[in-house]
Write a sequence for this structure.
């Protein structure tokens, strides 16, 4: 059942169309991943869903009711984790939580208990009395999430919640998201990190130039590029002309270079290794390693947009 | 929700060391430095223009009986007040310093009340006769020249008092010389020649003798008192640095916008009215506490007088509310134009400018007329006028002008905010 549905959503800033005729559905109890490069329109979409920004056109329905007509229906059930550390650094963790608990109108007698609960969820109980300015980046991110959980939201929107933090804190946050989802919370999760989305999300929507260009379960999306195999070739040195020669092989769909490693897209089950070794010999290149992989989500993104997500 | 926002802003300010340095420490230090170093020089007018005064000469010409040399009595008319006017006030030396006019008492006092004059010198009807009486009988009752003075012009007042005192001293010495010579001649009429030649002794006696009963009496105009430098600068610094509190209110909103906290706040259901209401309350309270602290500090450390604590509190409350309205305007502009550099401009340019024209550093009366008009009516200038009036002992009814100016300032800030909100509704939905 759809918890939230955005229909033909558009937003134009002066002459720039940031979101164009977007349709997206968040189902109850699912984690929906929203992938897209910078400028794809993710943040604008999130702002419209959170009723912070008025769409130029379209409709947003929350539990079947129009959010545009009455934003209160979503605000009290929505938790927003912004990409920025949206906290007061001069306050302690507990003071920040107390402030937001008041704003979310958590009943006075439940506040202390609820604050202790979210501190426990994010693993900051023992640092609750420290000022946020003394927290590490990872701790600030976790408190950033905690503030959005105080009122037990039904829908949690997380905008790049793991940007710029250490692997340990990232794992903690990913684990936390899984647990929240297990308890029935619906989550809209945006990230640059493909592996996070692959791990967490039930469904994934890929966004580019203001529109959803693909949407579905991970396997469905990967199925879009299933007719490809990927060959990774590590070499000792680069020699001019080798890359062009490989690209001219009929079975090669594309070829990219990362330092001394080539990523080669092949037609499914193509057999090019003998030809590759021959060319390497001709150009005096010594091949150090070869790896054949199945397509991943990143390859889907590359296939759909012609760009790598990380390069944006 | 408004109280929650207000409390949050108060806590932020109280924990912001830089803000506290600017809003509390700096005015305290500056007040002490300026108040102690410049002192009384600043509470009046220091301009080098001529000092406007009026002379009310009601004294009647008296007759001086001259019988010393010839033995015959002859009446010589004397008018000491007129001598003062013609020989002193009209002298070339004083023409560049003092401009005087002779007026009736009513007219002179009216002009003094309107601030057109610095001092009114009043010679009573019996002045000349009383001076003569003192000459003849040193024990006669004291002769008084009355000075009605504008309390806002105390430096000028000192100058005029000095001139009048100088004249009366001179007159006193003449009286003493007269009395001494007459006394000696009455004792030894045969030695008249020697006495005349013994002027050196007479003069020495004059210098050794206490002043007779001719004195200058300063008459405060109504019940108004002059300000001390400490009082003036306490008020001056308070009204300047209260503007920083209003500015910080908007700076905090700008920080909230930049950090994404503002959007998070909005996602909780907060409207702009909650935010603005919080700003209003927090700014009013912080300005109130700031000014109270400053006044209390100067009172406890330097013994500064409040004169009327209730009127002072009233002025502080109205001033604080007016600054709150200013903080709402600044907040509104910041929310509409999130990249604005208004806050930096406000702190680095607008506040020092307002402080200058509002009289925080130098008396407004030193400035050209149009700037005076602006300075008296702008928020900090009106507040300064109100505070100085209170400390000078003005009554509640006389505070009406500054209070009205402060209320109008606040109203203008709110109306401007309203217009901005009306024009950019989409930002505030």
């Amino acid at each position: 059942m759809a918890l939230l549905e955005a229909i033909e959503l558009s937003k134009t800033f002066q002459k720039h169309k940031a979101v164009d005729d977007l349709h997206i559905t968040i189902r109850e109890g699912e984690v929906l991943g929203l992938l897209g490069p910078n400028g794809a329109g993710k943040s604008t979409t999130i702002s419209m869903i959170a009723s912070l920004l008025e769409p130029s056109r379209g409709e947003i329905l929350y539990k079947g009711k129009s959010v545009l007509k009455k934003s209160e229906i979503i605000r009290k059930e929505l938790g927003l984790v912004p990409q920025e550390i949206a906290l007061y650094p001069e306050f302690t963790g507990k003071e920040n939580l107390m402030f937001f608990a008041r704003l979310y109108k958590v009943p006075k007698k439940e506040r202390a208990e609820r604050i202790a609960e979210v501190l426990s969820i994010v693993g900051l109980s023992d640092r609750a009395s420290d000022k946020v300015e003394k927290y590490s980046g990872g701790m600030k991110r976790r408190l950033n999430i905690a503030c959005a959980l105080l009122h037990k939201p039904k829908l949690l929107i997380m905008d790049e919640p793991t940007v710029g933090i250490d692997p340990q804190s990232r794992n903690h946050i990913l684990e936390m998201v899984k647990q929240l989802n297990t308890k029935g919370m619906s989550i809209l999760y945006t990230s640059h990190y493909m592996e996070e989305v692959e791990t967490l999300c039930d469904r994934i929507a890929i966004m580019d130039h203001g529109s959803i260009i693909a949407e579905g379960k991970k396997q469905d999306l990967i199925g879009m590029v299933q007719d490809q195999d990927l060959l990774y070739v590590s070499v000792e040195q680069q020699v001019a002309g080798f890359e062009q020669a490989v690209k001219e092989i009929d079975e090669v769909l594309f070829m990219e270079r990362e330092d001394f490693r080539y990523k080669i897209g092949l037609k499914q089950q193509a057999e090019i290794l003998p030809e590759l070794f021959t060319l390497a010999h001709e150009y005096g290149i010594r091949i150090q390693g070869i790896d054949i992989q199945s397509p991943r989500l990143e390859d889907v993104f590359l296939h759909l947009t012609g760009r790598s997500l990380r390069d944006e | 929700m408004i109280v929650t926002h207000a409390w949050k802003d108060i806590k932020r300010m109280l924990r912001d060391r830089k803000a506290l340095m600017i809003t509390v420490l700096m005015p305290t230090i500056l007040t002490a430095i300026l108040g102690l170093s410049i002192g009384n020089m600043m509470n009046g007018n220091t301009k080098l223009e001529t000092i406007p005064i009026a002379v009310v000469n009601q004294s009647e010409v008296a007759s001086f009986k001259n019988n010393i040399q010839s033995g015959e009595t002859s009446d010589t008319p004397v008018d000491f007040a007129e001598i003062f006017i013609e020989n002193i006030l009209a002298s070339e030396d004083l023409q560049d310093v003092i401009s005087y006019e002779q007026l009736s008492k009513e007219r002179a006092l009216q002009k003094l009340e309107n601030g057109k004059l610095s001092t009114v010198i009043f010679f009573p009807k019996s002045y000349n006769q009383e001076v003569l009486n003192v000459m003849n009988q040193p024990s006669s009752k004291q002769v008084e020249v009355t000075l009605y003075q504008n309390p806002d012009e105390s430096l000028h007042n000192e100058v005029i008092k000095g001139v009048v005192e100088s004249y009366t001293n001179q007159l006193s010495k003449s009286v003493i010389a007269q009395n001494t010579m007459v006394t000696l001649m009455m004792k030894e009429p045969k030695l008249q020649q020697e006495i005349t030649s013994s002027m050196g002794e007479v003069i020495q006696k004059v210098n050794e003798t206490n002043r007779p009963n001719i004195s200058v009496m300063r008459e405060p105009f109504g019940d108004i008192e002059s300000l001390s430098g400490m009082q003036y600068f306490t008020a001056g610094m308070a009204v300047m640095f209260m503007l920083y509190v209003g500015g910080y209110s908007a700076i905090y909103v700008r920080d909230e916008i930049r950090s994404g906290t503002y959007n998070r706040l909005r996602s909780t259901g907060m409207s702009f009215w909650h935010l603005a209401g919080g700003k209003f309350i927090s700014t009013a309270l912080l300005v109130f506490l700031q000014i109270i602290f400053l006044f209390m500090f100067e009172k406890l450390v330097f013994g500064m007088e409040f004169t009327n604590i209730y009127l002072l509190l009233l002025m502080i409350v109205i001033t604080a509310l007016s600054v709150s309205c200013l903080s709402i305007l600044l907040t509104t502009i910041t929310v509409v134009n999130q990249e604005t550099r208004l806050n930096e401009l406000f702190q680095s340019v607008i506040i020092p400018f307002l402080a200058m024209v509002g009289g925080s550093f130098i008396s407004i009366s030193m400035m050209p007329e149009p700037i005076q008009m602006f300075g008296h009516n702008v928020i900090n200038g009106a507040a300064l006028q109100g505070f100085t009036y209170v400390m000078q002992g003005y009554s509640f009814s006389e505070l009406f002008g500054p209070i009205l100016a402060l209320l109008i300032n606040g109203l203008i800030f709110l109306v401007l905010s309203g217009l901005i909100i009306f024009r950019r509704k989409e930002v505030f939905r």
